Give the backbone structure.
Amino acid sequence: MKNCGLKYNTCLYYSANALARVMGKLAEEEFSKTGLAPTYAFVLMAVNSFPGIQPKELSEYLQLTPSTVTRLIDKMEIKGYLERKNCGRSTEIYPTEESLALNDQIKTSWEELHKRYSSLVGETEGKELTEKINQAIDNILK
């Protein structure tokens, strides 16, 4: 049902959530090839890129709440993709060999997602929209 929300599509909240649902579906389809949900894939990419990252840093990096990051780490640790190491009073998160082995496949899915939405909205338009969304996030969080 195209444009069924015409009454609401002038609202940033409504439109942002509608876009998130559509993009979420595309991302789930692309990342399903890895056997991971998109959020888990981004967690692994981040930890693979920054071994020893602390949960608080990971939550800031991925713009997720600390409790969500803790839950994601718990699940990924159980599946054998991540491990925690206590360093004094802090905890560091490290990738396992399984996580590192999956990294190329995750990056390929991420690239395929980019190609897919770029083909739908246009390469330039996608970049501009991404920049505008990130600027709006920065402005709102100031």
